[in-house]
Structures are given as C-alpha cells and as structure tokens.
Amino acid sequence: MTAQVxxxxxxxxxxxxxxxxxxxxxxxxxxxxxxxxxxxGLLKDGEGGGVSALRLQMLMSTAxxxxxxxxxxxxxxxxxxxxVDPNLLALVGGSNGLVLLKLAFSKLRNFLRINPxx
Length: 118
Hints:
By secondary structure, the protein is an all-alpha fold. The protein is about 70% helix and about 0% strand. It is built from three helices and no strands. Helix 2 runs antiparallel to helix 3. The longest helix has about 35 residues, at about 1-35. The chain is elongated, with a radius of gyration of 21 Å.
C-alpha cells in the first residue's frame, strides 16, 4: 500500500520541485537585472584591476553546468533527480581549482614578499 501512495505522490513532488526551480531562476534573473543582486567586481582581477580570464572561465563553466542540469531535470520523467554528469563535475571543479590555485599563489607571493615583476 505504501508503494501505491508513493507512486501517486511522486509526480506531484516532481512537479513542485520543477515549479520551485523555475520560480527560483526567474527570481534570480529578475534580481540580477533589477540590480538587487550586485555583480560589481565579479570578474575583476585582484592584481591588475581588469577582467580576469580565470574568473570569466569559472563563471561560464558554472553557468553551463547549471543550465545542463536544469535541462536534465526538465527532461526527467521519474521522481528522482537525474545523475550529475562526471564531465560537468570535472569542468566546474577544474575551473574552480584554477582560480583557487591562482589565489593561493598570489597569497603566497605576498607572504614571501616576492616582487611579481622579477
């Protein structure tokens, strides 16, 4: 009897999860466009002040992975979340790792007081 109840409730749970995710995406997009979420300095390089290629890469890979997973959720027909693609995990993890390595080397250089032009 419990399996029958779960089978009847599962589509409702899936629908409510989809509605929540779509509403959240719309809310975030609205707040970004409205200025409610500040993006000032999001891509700035801490040392040079220009746009950081690593931060841009990290933003794009995260957005790509997020969009890919949202599409996978939209295509899902069962009441379970779809599995995360290991390639997307590697992409996002590698991208974030590069940014963290750059920050760590920058902190280390500042700590050791090495002249960056040398």
